[in-house]
User: Which sequence fits this backbone?
């Protein structure tokens, strides 16, 4: 009974995706008939070839990968470094700074959107990689998660490393960071997935197709080929595919991220 | 190897707690000195100040000829073994032992040789490529030792390294540590709260109590000639009985100390008033009622096989008698107490010994 | 550190801070002077273009233009001039140009020296060095500052090709009460350094020494100087342009019998000209439609007044405070750091420096891209914008729509919790099935959001997967419901997995104890499971609402806020986007974002408290 319930829910989750795949192989008018067809009458891969071209798939994929990759590396490094300082170093005002950092979580991203855009504009970075990437390089959540992890490292190991001759940097880089690998993985995957699907900021800060990321390109594709659903579904499958691969490879970290963020999708 | 000298060392923690008071201590080159004290006596703080993990509030730490009071741990060239093995969980035993050498940019070939040497000494050759999680407790602590000895430091600091192990393993490793000390001729400071360990290991024992150094001496010294009442109480299992008493009597003869229901004749003739009287349990005996220096009620009897410990209440003063074999004593009965008058220790009310 | 060394260090820090402020002030003043000169040069170029008539029709196209001969006579042998045969060169009548250029020099009351180049040859001061031939193509890209003068291109009458240049060299004018342009800042700097030296050498505390106050005073004084320079740059342009306009009114070439305002307006492209009233000739500041404007009255003919308007440069002078305040406060901060270093042991000092090294990247980034923008957002959103927003029914509609949309959150949570409770036990025995099902539930969390939007739009459109014929999305009453359904679908799987994790974390002993106490399944759920699950549930609920109120992509892709005219799915963030990047009302959009931010705070606050509590447990 429980197995059936779980299975049924799984089917509900997957069915729309399967349907998307199915439509992507249909002919142009096929979806508009009544009753709607579930499977293509004569499957064709032409949609994919065309969408691949029209989307400039490799270019937008490269842009997305650059955005997600840079942000991932940046967030991991800044979060780990700051989290380490808060967790394992003593300096004046530490606790007060930590509290004000947490207070920054209360500033919603939407309030920052316009001023950030104006700053990027003033720097002359609109429609460039620095403009796309720079605002996202630090995540307070990431710092929070890393601090939590570093706080729990045993003190004896730290002391042992100090006596072994480790300086503050070695301690961080060769002892603490490797020990915090699960948290690093969570921050990395979270940053990567969030940026892979980041929509509003790239939409605002890019102008030319040359700089578009996958999500924005797909949205523009949608506007350009409004009525041709199979065509659009092919593009949607193309854009979703890389993220799916990541999900399968890093399922554990994705799950950790979902739990850490309280299961939210930025729809 | 080098000597370690501590001069007028004081440490006040952030909260205002003073952990150490003007401590002076010298550990000679090649000596194994045991720092003994109950928990909270500040012995670990001493060790951490020597290691450089804590910065002293005042005073100096000297290793060899060098004053290292404010030097970071990495520059002191001392090795430390902790209560927990404190191995790097993400490195194999080999990499754990090699880590301090790597940080000192020792050549790879030499690292390999020295790691192997250390491993052989400790019987770790077969587990070199395992992760700490895959080792037994004893192997882990041995690996931690290996990490300490591999770089041949000026001094070894051992912070209760055996306290977390079960008894047989503890005894086994204790022997190995002693052998290691002899083989290396190393200067070692060994911190423990277990006075059996202190007695069996230390060439000299330094006894700490409430942040003050009470006595430094050989095991025999601290056992037979305790410097004050705290040392007397702490050394020995069980520790010395200390009775609160009052001198009474006149003339050359007939001077006694009254402690609870006991009236003990003493040969000291120069003191009158509040004082403390110490006697080790092995010099307390039992006899028929009214035949000894006084009577006491039996509270608890602990038969241990080779000996029996009898806990007594003598008019409000508690004391322990150690009797050989299984003694025929019943809880709740009243017995007479006798003491070996030649084995009495007298302290004044503040705990300082009376000549 | 010895006290004398310390005092010297503190004084040095204060001096550096003071010098920094003076440098900022001077830079700002120079910027404003250049801005004025460039603007003036552009206006002058437009003036020259407007008042110079085209050359008379040439007798023969092959004839060498007179301009070359004329210019060549007084000037040293000119370097190769632009091809004189080019049609552009023939767009101005050179004798008139020469006359107009000379007239500029004798213009009464002008605060700058001017030079007009035709080709590369100077016309006003014929002995001046000519431009280099490379300059003209470079100038085509825009004006530039060179050797103390603003150089802007002089285009042909058609405005297409660069045929020469206009240079404006501003004459130094006194600004501020003291000479040298540092009227307020300089004495304030002396006071600040003095205050610092006093506390340093007399061992006063920072607060008692009054240095913080002196430093703030210094920043304020510097700002006043910058502000004065900004105001002056606008005023100078107004006054000098006023002269040009009066001049232009008499000089505009025929066939214009009577000067039209539009002719003059073409000359001042970055200003505004309207019919005006008689007034005095000094510039004034007035408020027009709620915006501050610098205006001056110009007489362009008998009884004909116009008003020249410009955005006052001092309106954006506050941006200099971003440099001035930290610059001035650097002094007290440095002294605080010195004081702290003096009484801190070496190792704590080292540790602090290391810690800040670790923090620096994140801290700088947060200052620049979070704290700064947050303050900027408040600055952008003026009170007037809030007033306008409150009156706009679309604002209210968007908040109501967002709130209605967010109602899906409790529904999806209830569903997820129910399923989690139902399958919890089975899952403990689960094997490969569990893994596969988890991946299925995680799909919406990793797949492209736009793709999700498209796939559901297609599905609704086709009415497939059992949704039925009428397209829910095209009906105002059901469109939002349709989006909510998508959101429930997207969230329920992940939420369920989170609840399963929470259920796993409940120690079996609690449930066993309840069982032993004789509690039935229903009681155990209400009295044990649910209370223990409460923090997780709260967290999921709060993040869910917060993220629901910020929903954007779905609406942007699927409905664009429609169906219209009801704006049935026009959620707040979509409204913000449309406001900001539609008619470029950034201030308005910022105000709307702040309103949403305040609403979000209601949910964010308990969420942060929850997080902090969890942090303490860890």
Assistant:
């Amino acid at each position: 009974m429980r197995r059936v319930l779980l299975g049924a829910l799984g089917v509900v989750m997957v069915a729309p995706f399967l349907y998307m795949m199915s439509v992507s192989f249909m002919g142009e008018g096929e979806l508009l008939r009544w009753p709607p067809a579930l499977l293509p009458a004569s499957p064709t891969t032409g949609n994919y070839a065309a969408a691949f071209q029209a989307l400039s798939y490799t270019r937008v994929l490269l842009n997305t990968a650059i955005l997600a990759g840079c942000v991932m590396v940046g967030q991991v490094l800044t979060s780990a470094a700051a989290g380490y300082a808060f967790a394992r170093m003593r300096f004046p005002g530490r606790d007060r700074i930590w509290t004000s950092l947490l207070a920054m979580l209360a500033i919603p991203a939407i309030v920052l959107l316009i001023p950030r855009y104006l700053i990027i504009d003033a720097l002359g970075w609109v429609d460039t990689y620095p403009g796309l990437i720079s605002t996202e390089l630090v995540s307070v959540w990431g710092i929070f998660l890393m601090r939590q992890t570093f706080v729990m490292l045993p003190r004896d190991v730290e002391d042992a490393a100090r006596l072994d001759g480790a300086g503050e940097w070695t301690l961080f880089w060769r002892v603490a960071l490797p020990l915090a690998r699960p948290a690093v993985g969570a921050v990395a995957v979270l940053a990567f997935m969030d940026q892979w699907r980041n929509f509003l900021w790239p939409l605002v800060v890019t102008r030319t197709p040359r700089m578009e990321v996958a999500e924005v390109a797909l949205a523009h594709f949608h506007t350009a080929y409004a009525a041709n659903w199979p065509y659009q579904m092919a593009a949607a499958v193309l854009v979703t595919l890389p993220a799916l691969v990541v999900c399968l490879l890093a399922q554990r970290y994705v799950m950790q991220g979902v739990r850490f963020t309280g299961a939210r999708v930025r729809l | 190897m080098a000597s370690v000298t501590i001069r007028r060392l004081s440490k006040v923690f952030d909260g205002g707690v003073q952990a150490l008071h003007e401590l002076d201590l010298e550990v000679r080159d090649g000596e194994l000195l045991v720092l003994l004290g109950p928990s909270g006596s500040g012995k670990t703080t001493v060790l951490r100040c020597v290691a450089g993990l804590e910065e002293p509030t005042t005073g100096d730490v000297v290793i060899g000829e060098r004053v290292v009071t404010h030097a970071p741990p990495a520059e002191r060239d001392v090795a430390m073994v902790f209560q927990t093995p404190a191995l790097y969980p993400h490195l194999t035993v080999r990499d754990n032992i090699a880590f301090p050498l790597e940080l000192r940019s020792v050549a790879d070939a030499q690292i390999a040789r020295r790691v192997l040497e250390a491993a052989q000494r400790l019987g770790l050759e077969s587990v070199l490529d395992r992760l700490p999680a895959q080792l037994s407790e004893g192997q882990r602590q041995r690996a931690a030792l290996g990490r300490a000895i591999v770089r041949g430091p000026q001094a070894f600091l051992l912070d209760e390294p055996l306290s977390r192990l079960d008894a047989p393993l503890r005894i086994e490793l204790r022997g190995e540590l002693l052998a290691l000390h002899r083989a290396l001729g190393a200067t070692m400071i060994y911190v423990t709260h277990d006075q059996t360990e202190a007695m069996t290991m230390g060439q000299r024992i330094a006894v700490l109590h409430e942040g003050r150094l009470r006595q430094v001496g050989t095991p025999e010294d601290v056992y037979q000639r305790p410097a004050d009442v705290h040392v007397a109480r702490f050394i020995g299992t069980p520790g010395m009985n200390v009775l609160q008493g009052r001198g009474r009597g006149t003339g050359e003869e007939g001077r006694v100390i009254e402690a609870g229901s006991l009236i003990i004749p003493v040969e000291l003739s120069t003191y009158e008033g509040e004082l403390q009287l110490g006697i080790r349990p092995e010099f307390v005996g039992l006899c028929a009622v009214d035949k000894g220096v006084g009577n006491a009620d039996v509270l608890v009897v602990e038969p241990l096989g080779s000996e029996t410990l009898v806990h007594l209440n003598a008019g409000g003063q508690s004391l322990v008698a150690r009797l050989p074999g299984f003694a025929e004593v019943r809880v709740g009965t009243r017995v007479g107490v006798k003491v070996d008058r030649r084995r009495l220790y007298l302290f004044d009310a503040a705990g300082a010994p009376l000549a | 550190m010895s006290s004398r060394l310390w005092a010297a260090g503190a004084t040095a820090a204060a001096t550096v801070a003071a010098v920094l402020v003076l440098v900022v002030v001077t830079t700002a003043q120079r910027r404003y002077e250049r801005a004025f000169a460039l603007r003036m040069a552009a206006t002058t170029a437009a003036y020259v273009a407007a008042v110079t008539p085209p050359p008379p029709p040439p007798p023969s196209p092959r004839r060498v233009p007179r301009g070359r001969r004329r210019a060549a006579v007084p000037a040293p042998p000119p370097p190769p001039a632009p091809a004189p045969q080019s049609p552009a060169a023939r767009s101005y009548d050179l004798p008139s140009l020469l006359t107009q250029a000379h007239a500029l020099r004798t213009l009464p009351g002008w605060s700058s020296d001017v030079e007009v180049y035709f080709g590369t040859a100077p016309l006003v001061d014929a002995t001046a060095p000519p431009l280099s031939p490379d300059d003209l193509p470079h100038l085509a890209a825009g004006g530039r500052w060179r050797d103390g003068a603003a150089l802007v291109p002089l285009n042909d009458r058609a405005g297409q090709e660069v045929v020469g240049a206009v240079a404006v060299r501003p004459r130094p004018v006194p600004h501020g009460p003291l000479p040298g342009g540092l009227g307020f800042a300089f004495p304030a700097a002396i006071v600040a350094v003095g205050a610092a030296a006093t506390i340093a050498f007399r061992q006063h505390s920072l607060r008692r020494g009054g240095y913080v106050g002196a430093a703030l005073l210094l920043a304020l004084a510097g700002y006043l100087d910058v502000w004065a320079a900004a105001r002056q740059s606008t005023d100078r342009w107004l006054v000098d342009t006023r002269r040009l306009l009066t001049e232009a009114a008499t000089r505009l070439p025929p066939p214009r019998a009577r000067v039209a305002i539009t002719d003059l307006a073409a000359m001042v492209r970055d200003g505004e000209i309207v019919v005006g009233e008689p007034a005095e000739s000094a510039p004034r500041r007035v408020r027009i439609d709620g915006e501050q404007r610098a205006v001056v009255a110009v007489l362009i003919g008998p009884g004909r007044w116009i008003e020249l308007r410009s955005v006052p440069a001092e309106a954006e002078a506050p941006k200099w405070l971003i440099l001035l305040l930290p610059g001035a406060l650097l002094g007290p901060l440095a002294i605080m750091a010195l004081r702290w270093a003096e009484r801190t042991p070496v190792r704590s000092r080292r540790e602090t420096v290391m810690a800040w090294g670790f923090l620096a990247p994140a801290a700088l980034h947060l200052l620049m891209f979070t704290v700064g923008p947050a303050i900027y957002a408040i600055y952008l959103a003026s009170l007037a914008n809030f007033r306008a927003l409150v009156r706009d029914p679309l604002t209210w509609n968007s908040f109501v729509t967002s709130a209605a949309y967010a109602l899906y959150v409790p529904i999806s949570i209830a569903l997820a919790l129910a399923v989690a409770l139902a399958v919890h036990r089975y899952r403990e025995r689960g094997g490969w099935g569990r893994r596969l099902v988890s991946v299925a539930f995680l799909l919406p969390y990793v797949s492209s959001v736009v793709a999700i939007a498209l796939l559901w739009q297609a599905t609704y459109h086709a009415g497939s997967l059992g949704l039925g014929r009428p397209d829910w999305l095209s009906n105002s009453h059901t469109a939002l419901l349709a989006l909510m359904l998508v959101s429930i679908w997207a969230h329920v799987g992940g939420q369920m997995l989170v609840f399963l994790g929470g259920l796993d974390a409940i120690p079996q002993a609690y449930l066993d104890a309840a069982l032993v106490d004789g509690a039935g399944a229903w009681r155990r759920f209400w009295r044990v499971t649910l209370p223990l699950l409460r923090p997780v549930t709260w967290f999921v609920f709060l993040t869910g609402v917060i993220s629901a109120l910020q929903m954007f992509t779905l609406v942007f892709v699927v409905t664009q806020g429609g169906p219209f005219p009801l704006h049935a799915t026009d959620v707040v963030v979509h409204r913000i986007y449309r406001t900001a990047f539609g008619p470029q009302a950034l201030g308005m959009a910022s105000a709307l974002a702040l309103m949403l931010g305040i609403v979000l705070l209601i949910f964010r606050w308990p969420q942060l408290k929850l997080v902090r509590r969890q942090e303490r447990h860890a």
